[in-house]
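Following up on my earlier thread - several people asked me to post the actual chain instead of describing it. Fair enough. Here it is, all 186 residues.
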Amino acid sequence: MGLGPIFCFWRWRQGAARDSEGAARSDVVKGSGGSDRRAADIEALIRPQIAAAGCELWGFELLPSGRHSTLRIYIDREEGVSVDDCEAVSRRVSAVFDVEEPISGQYTLEVSSPGMDRILFRLEHYAESVGETVEIRLNQPFEGRRKLTGVLAGVEDDEVVVQVGEDEYLLPLEWIQRARIVPRFE
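Reply from S.P.:
Thanks for posting it. Predicted structure:
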């Protein structure tokens, strides 16, 4: 999977204001390999649309904010992601969401490449990124810290090994709120 020479961002405002029935949850819904039912439902709708556009689903986030949410979809492809790819995925996903309505209320659909500072969603993403510097935000403090920056040293079962200076941390995947690659510019 290439990083893609272009970071693209396609925004599409979708949905009409509705009553509070089925209002969005106040937490972030992350998708691509998780066990959350809502994430699985959204992924089942978007994955075929992304594949039909010749791309691969890297992951997604649903960020509720009152009556308005943002669905951020990250796509990738071997040759890199173009603005045209983002537009094609956005149009396909929007068409399905107009019928299925998996998100109540107003929302903004954003489609982009994962970029150089890509978020790691699945255990496979961590395994592919061994040796990279990562910034990890934890759900709760661990040894007094919620944020770690270090080298991703490996993956063991469902745990991520991170080397921070002389210390090595073994972090269960469910403890990680967000992990992102720290790009190197040499």
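Residues 1-7, 9-26 have pLDDT under 50 and may be disordered. That should answer part of your original question.
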